[in-house]
Here is the input.
Amino acid sequence: MKIALDAMGGDKAPGEIVRGGILAAEEFGVEVALVGVTSAIRAEIGKFNHPAVGVSVVDAPDIIGMAESVMVALKQKPHSGIAVGLEMVKRGEASAFVSAGNTGAGMAAALMILDRLPGVLRPALAFVTPGFKGVGLLLDVGANPDCKPQNLVQFARMGSLYMEHMYKMSRPRVGLLSNGEEEEKGNRLVREAHKLLKTSGLNFVGNVEGKDLLRGLADVVVTDGFTGNVVLKLGEGVAETIFASVKQAVEGNIPALATAFIWSPPLLDVYKGYDFRKHGGVPLLGVNGHVILAHGRSDALAIKHAVRQAQMLAQGELLRALRVALASPTGENTMVSAEES
Amino acid sequence: MKIALDAMGGDKAPGEIVRGGILAAEEFGVEVALVGVTSAIRAEIGKFNHPAVGVSVVDAPDIIGMAESVMVALKQKPHSGIAVGLEMVKRGEASAFVSAGNTGAGMAAALMILDRLPGVLRPALAFVTPGFKGVGLLLDVGANPDCKPQNLVQFARMGSLYMEHMYKMSRPRVGLLSNGEEEEKGNRLVREAHKLLKTSGLNFVGNVEGKDLLRGLADVVVTDGFTGNVVLKLGEGVAETIFASVKQAVEGNIPALATAFIWSPPLLDVYKGYDFRKHGGVPLLGVNGHVILAHGRSDALAIKHAVRQAQMLAQGELLRALRVALASPTGENTMVSAEES
Here is the structure.
């Protein structure tokens, strides 16, 4: 299996990206195609202390600047790392695409090149949240700042299939993020979505609140991309705060604190789960191909995990299940579960 | 100064509410009027181990059930604790009103009985957030699940005046909660509000993200009541997770962890800040009177802090400053600062 990796995307590109790709190839036995400016990639490979096994270089000489309009740039520069990598997935030359470049650009390019799966209204970014009682999936965490009620229902279908396939859950419990547990709570969007979810055939457990994200009350939590993104970044902020506290204590020669944290697995799990270096990236669900968008600040470790995530996604049958379930306008086929498909 | 306390509101009413009122009266030298069913309040006072000094009982025999429509109940039952307490504020017999009852009911009653300050479009619930670098104010945290851009601008004005008066800040920095720092990020509401805030005369520092809430990048962060409520409750959830970790470690005879936490002031501050027992409650800004709505699960400690907060609010000049600043339809008078007023 080959994973196309955007070597030029991200704050620490190409150095850390190339390193992460090499580490993933070594550790997980996956082929990594480093897509980008060949000379720059070769220079980074040359810095590695032993021969890079399982990686190849695919030339993509165009660079898209931060200030450029994504849609214009994609048309004017057909040979950027992001375009060439996604084209590889489209032609079946790669099983998945990973990028730590601008998230908006990654989504726009994926939509343009791979297109949506038939029946999909809006793709969504899905984040695996940590918690005391196992993981949950939060989506959308940023693809759609403005949503319609039908979008949230489709996110729920996609998220349910994700948890069935990637975590072998049976009929995952779907929660709707709201400002209160009661059915009548929520903004206009949420109140409408609540009605639709009740008759969706999904295992809808009702509204969940911010605090429930850590409590495992639902396996899939749906929200609009604005709220989801605020939540995701608050989680990151909390993880960094905890990390900074530990670091400060250790540097102040108070090793007890560091030790104590290691003794506290639940807290550590939560901290790790929100640390983007550990989780790797977020899948873009609803496009016709496997796409993982990693954090812009990704280092080699984060990229390694993102490639691993792409590999696991591509090994499964999620994409096929999504295609079957979403092709029906009513979503009737959604109940094709991991076992049946 | 007399504070009217809704003795019948909250999950732990009347016992913990009465206890909290007595503790506040003793500790802060404030008069507390316990408003509710006289016999029930007197029975709770009787359980106290010494004479209750500084408290009085105001009879409010009507009980509003959880299932009742607030607006209907307020009309049919004019002698509930919430109505009688707010009437005391309206008539000037109490300087502030505190309730741990249903937040929606508290807001509706405050609007009906006290009315909005002239010029106020929508009142907002304001929460003092903890952080590494001092406190910040987040509003709205639940009064308005659906907002218009002009609402967010007015929240910014009210929040700025709050920080000027309650925390003696000069020209507080106002941030707009969004899914990205760049001006073009946000949902429709946020992009429109961004434009209005730029020309508002306020010290607007642009968009802030979820992670910035802990970083002190802004003194006042405005958002719609839906997103704000999700953030507030996620913060609560994180605080409870940390608390549970400590408890678990202590019960497992690993005192190092408990000790270590005490050695870690930044983390502890953040934890405490989101613990509703410590912060007490949230002021409802924009109504014509001082109203503090406390957490439904408030115990005596939480109520004590909420009464203290009400006392501090009533001792200041915030209400007068809000009245002056918001009376102008353009908000031109907003710049009346704490020093000038």
About this structure: Chain B has two domains: 2-120+286-320, 124-276. Confidence is low (pLDDT under 50) at residues 253-265, 332-341 of chain B. Chain B touches chain A through 53 residues (CB under 8 Å).
